[in-house]
Amino acid sequence: MSEAEIDGKPVSLKAAAERSAEILLSARMPIVAGLGTDVAGARVSISLMERLRGAYDHLQSDRIFADLDVMRQAGLMFTTPSEARLRADVLLFIGNDLTRIWPAMMERLSPGEMPPFDLAHQKRKVLWIAPSRSAAKAEKFPIETLDTTNLHATLASLRARFSGKPINAGKAVLRKLDEFAEVLKNARFGVAVWGGDMLDSLSVEMLYGLITDINKTTRFTGLPLGAENNAGGVLQTSGWMTGFPMRTSFGRGYPEHDSWRFDTNRMIESGEADAALWISSYGREVPSWKKQVPLIALVPPKTKFARVPQVRIEIGQPGIDHDAAEFARETGTIVGRDASHTSEALSVAAVVGQIAQHIGRDA
What we know:
Low-confidence stretches: none
Helix content: 25-40%
Mean pLDDT: 94
Distance between the termini: 29 Å
Strand content: 15-25%
Number of helices: 13
Radius of gyration: 23 Å
Strand order of the largest sheet: 2-1-14-13-12-3-4-10-11
């Protein structure tokens, strides 16, 4: 059974749920932040904010919007990991933390193997811009690497060299960029794989421009790895419930989305939001805002806060303590996972459901 506290003192789950409802009902603008939860947890949390006319956000929205902003403005083309493994004769990795974001990436994409559906039956070529030195060296197949500390400039230079345009660079850098460009030109079906904190919207937009240029003469597509804490699952849940991604508010009685206005960190620091329900079921993450507001925390055991939350309820991890539906990179979609170590720890959906029972239907 999950443990609960009010102001650091042990209480029953019922008392903690009642106190949480009081805090949220008394707030002028409550928010759900973190939102690291499975699909069921995201559904009840978004529904709760709709009833309270609050807003919600995800702790890794910045990473999600790096891809989403480009897709909304310019369009993006994606493929699945299975398609990349079966067909790609060229893999272009970008970023130094790909194997940290997706530890099974090498196993799932099998870059060292011949693509089974490639009619030429040739070994695939693997390029890596800004690689993790340890990850690239650990592999037992050839990887052509290109180190950089300025990803914007490197992607722009590669795009220019692909199109045969001059750039201002040293001979060694120019030779390496031309080698990369030549491999991309000769690809029959290439896939760019990217993710992590190195790539912001500008980098993704530049990369997409390169992919568009390559597709004028051959086939090339993308495989973004997204973010952790089921950000992809929350994104899809938010989409089918409201028509918008995270950073959406019900303040006017209907869903409104704005990636700046409804950034919950900004809302707390500016005083626009005055109570928060923080959810982190995949890890012990805590809010990064500095301003103190009434805080309800649904977190795993041993999570440490700078200040004691007004209400704290311990929860289990989706797919480990309880069955869950969540986004899986392996398939590029939402899948059901049986609990690997079923426990009595409550799910986010169960706890938020209890809080909602103490909030009147007219709220």
